[in-house]
Amino acid sequence: MAQPLMRLARPRLASALPAVRPAISASTPRAFSAAAPLRADDEPKAKQGLLKSLMHGSPHARAESPTVSQSHSKTVGRGKYIHEIQRLVVRPDAVDELRAVLAEFYPRLHKSDGGDGGRLVGSWEVVVGDQETFYTVWEYDGYAGYDEVQASLAKSETYAALQKKLRPLLSSRSNWLAQEFGFWATSPPNTNMGGVVEWRTYHLKPGMLLEWETNWRRGLEARRKYVQPVAAYFTQIGGLHTVHHLWHYPNLDERKKTRDAAWQVETWNDTVSQTVKLIDKMHAQIMKPLPFSPLR
To answer: How far apart are CA 219 and CA 66, in angstroms?
Structure first.
């Protein structure tokens, strides 16, 4: 027989107030009223509701998406490409040598130029944030395209030579496979951008991706009036529940001005207030494109 729930002690002043039984949701810890203990047959329903919210987001987000019966990647993703995000952390004494190695080999691997690799989207060096760190984004025609490229790289003399030169220079490296959001396609190559790219990384609470997409679909239009959106990805392999947003600014002063202007738009205020509660932690870095980057 299930043991009865322990009644919680209350301050004496509370005896004059009516007991309130909070609603159970994914964002509110479950609480029990001493005046109305949770029945044994209520608990499976509560757990089911909590699990549904964690898997598919809030009822509001589910109501705005007609495809919640699909996986999140099919619901929010563009589905056309897979993007690989690579991060290289170099030894402090080898930064210049790494720049030279990337400039020599990455353009040669670029598929659009006849190389064995994927399509090179962009390559950047962090100037504010994690120092001695470089990010590169490669694009593939779905997972089949990624598998095909990996098979080609395994036989590529150019790729083998790159790895031989890279390894002694690095202190660590990581990569993730990600998709674009359906409402935010990656910018095409543009060698006349100049300025800097802000790379913002959001680690979401599990199950919040659909709600993130629902709010940012509206919020992007408010930001687009003031700043050039470059790309937005959500990870599928690697660190999960992670979103990457890339923005272009002429300089940091313009970044401040455009962000201040966006706060005057009601849609943007609403986007921030609705999405900040979905985030576990976040990170922002400023980067400059490398000279060979197709986006620079």
So the answer is: 20
